[in-house]
């Protein structure tokens, strides 16, 4: 899938900026209108996930072209390398995006895995997971290996 | 509690702007450093909840005063008139705020009621609910009464 290729490139770029490597693109009428990746470390703002970056870019896009954001979001397909976290999942539900396509699962924070936010909120968003998941996961593993050699793999749940 | 008084004022102000009346203040070292209320309708951005507005204001505050946002957020007490939704609850967890004080419950979207996001994410955020909850709920009831034309009619007898 060409769009996931683009999202993976953004994840790679985040990796190079020493951010958790998650990349994302937002598709509107079969065209990419926003590209994003994690900016948490750079901004020291733990909410600046790839999806949140893209949400803001779509709003700027709508403003520029004088489009109604509500209508645009309803047609948006989100393509993201890692399953959206609970915060992003709820944000995407709030915006009523059309579809979410993700790569690998997010066993610690995932908004469909840890808890199914979409089910809880009776969402009609279509969700497809597992698209090029190995590549997405490899990037995460590489990142966590580099960051903290003694850290468990991202898939391992933290013990309390 | 004086801070909830301030949050309720912000909720009232949102009501007057025809937004879902939720108001919020963020406290740092016993002082209000951010005030926010819903801006969803105005911005046509369903993620612009009171808490998200305040998060951005805290980041501006930190930039201006050259403070580390991570350290500041760790000391923040969030005072909000309505229980944070799942998105905001997860965002506040991500930012590791110190404490959340809320007014009334949010039975449809609440991040502790519909699902306990903090428990799921093994959060150490202290949470206190029910502070001046009647006033917060009254504002919501008043708003939805005015907004929803299909809401049940008041039980006054119609003259024939």
Features of this protein?
homodimer, 160 residues, alpha/beta, five-stranded mixed beta sheet, 7 helices, globular, disordered C terminus
Structure description:
The structure is a homodimer of 160-residue chains. Chain A is of the alpha/beta class and 160 residues long. Chain A is built from seven helices and five strands. Chain A has helices at 2-16, 40-43, 50-65, 69-74, 86-94, 117-120, 133-147, and strands at residues 23-28, 31-37, 77-82, 99-104, 126-128. Chain A has a five-stranded mixed sheet with strand order 2-1-3-4-5. In chain A, a hairpin with a 2-residue loop joins strand 1 and strand 2 (31-37). In chain A, helix 1 (2-16) runs parallel beside helix 7. The N and C termini of chain A lie far apart (39 Å). The relative contact order of chain A is 0.15. The interface between A and B is medium-sized, with 29 and 28 residues.
């Amino acid at each position: 899938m060409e769009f996931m290729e683009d999202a993976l490139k953004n994840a790679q770029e985040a990796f190079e900026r020493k951010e958790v490597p998650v990349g994302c693109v937002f598709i509107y009428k079969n065209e990419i209108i926003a590209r994003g990746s994690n900016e948490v470390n750079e901004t020291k703002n733990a909410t600046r996930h790839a999806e949140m970056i893209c949400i803001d870019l779509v709003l700027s896009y709508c403003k520029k072209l004088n489009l109604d954001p509500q209508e645009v979001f309803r047609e948006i397909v989100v393509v993201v390398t890692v399953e959206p976290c609970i915060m992003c999942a709820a944000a995407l539900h709030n915006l009523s995006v059309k579809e979410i396509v993700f790569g690998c699962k997010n066993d610690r924070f995932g908004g469909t895995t840890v808890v199914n936010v979409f089910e809880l909120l009776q969402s009609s968003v279509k969700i497809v997971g597992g698209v090029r998941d190995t590549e997405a996961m490899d990037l995460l593993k590489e990142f966590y290996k580099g960051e903290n050699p003694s850290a468990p793999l991202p898939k391992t749940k933290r013990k309390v």
